[in-house]
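Below is a filled-in request sheet from our internal design queue. Each sheet records the structural input a requester submitted and the sequence that came back. We keep these sheets so that new team members can see what a complete request looks like end to end.

REQUESTER: design group, bay 2
PRIORITY: normal
MODE: inverse folding
CHAIN LENGTH: 250
BACKBONE (tokenized):
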């Protein structure tokens, strides 16, 4: 009897392994087939989707795409929401409402809500679950439910080269300069100058760049060593494998 039990257990493990591999293959196929690109836009008709730009599958909520322009080589993670206008099927005029520059990265689960203009500059990277919105609820009337009061809208501008950490919130009217770092979980409103680091809720400037004195307060860690010119990705990968070998042997 124990022998039969072991046989049945082995067969069950084998079946689970086969089923698991099949599920992973199907999911990989769905991710590849369901991705949105300029060549394969699916049901989405963006005002512009640049060369090399890819929206990962599954996508989040997307509407008003006729007023959404995506630059070249953007990476839009899974379940990212991109909306233009308060609701679908509105006529928003001739100008784009939501604009992403070239090389923008939006991490999985992020939301960009553009009821009025939102622009994100080239080479801005957003971590997962970043929330960028041009709309905020109003609560002027104390007798009316907040959700039933007409919202306030202000344009949002994020300059090129910014880094926006996981879970950060960019509120209506925010204007971020060039190469701004937003700490994870920060809540940003108002104007942020070029080359600043902001953190907190509400966010405040905790570090800034001075042309004569450098970063103030000074950075606590040494600058990373730049990759030498001429080094290829294949060479970097080979070095990484060599560095892993001692750890694997240990």
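RETURNED SEQUENCE:
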């Amino acid at each position: 009897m124990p022998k039969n039990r072991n046989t049945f257990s082995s067969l069950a493990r084998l079946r689970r392994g086969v089923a698991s591999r099949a599920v992973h293959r199907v999911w990989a196929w769905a991710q590849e087939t369901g991705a949105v690109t300029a060549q394969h836009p699916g049901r989405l008709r963006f005002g512009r989707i640049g060369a090399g730009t890819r929206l990962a599958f599954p996508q989040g909520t997307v509407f008003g795409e006729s007023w959404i322009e995506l630059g070249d080589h953007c990476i839009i993670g899974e379940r990212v929401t991109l909306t233009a206008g308060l609701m679908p099927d509105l006529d928003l005029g001739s100008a784009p409402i939501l604009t992403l520059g070239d090389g923008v990265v939006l991490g999985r689960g992020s939301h960009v809500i553009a009821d009025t203009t939102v622009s994100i500059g080239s080479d801005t990277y957003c971590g997962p679950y970043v929330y960028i919105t041009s709309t905020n609820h109003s609560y002027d009337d104390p007798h009316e439910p907040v959700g039933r009061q007409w919202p306030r809208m202000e344009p949002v501008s994020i300059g090129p080269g910014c880094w926006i950490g996981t879970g950060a919130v960019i509120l209506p009217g925010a204007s971020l300069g060039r190469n701004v770092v937003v700490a994870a979980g920060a809540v940003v409103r108002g104007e942020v100058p070029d080359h600043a680091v902001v953190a907190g809720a509400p966010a405040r400037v905790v570090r800034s760049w001075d042309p004569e004195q450098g970063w103030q307060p000074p950075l606590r860690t040494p600058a990373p060593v730049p990759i030498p010119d001429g080094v290829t990705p294949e060479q970097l990968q080979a070095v990484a494998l060599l560095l892993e070998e001692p750890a694997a042997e240990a």
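SHEET NOTES:
- The chain is about 20% helix and 25% strand.
- The chain has a mean pLDDT of 90.
FILED BY: M.R.
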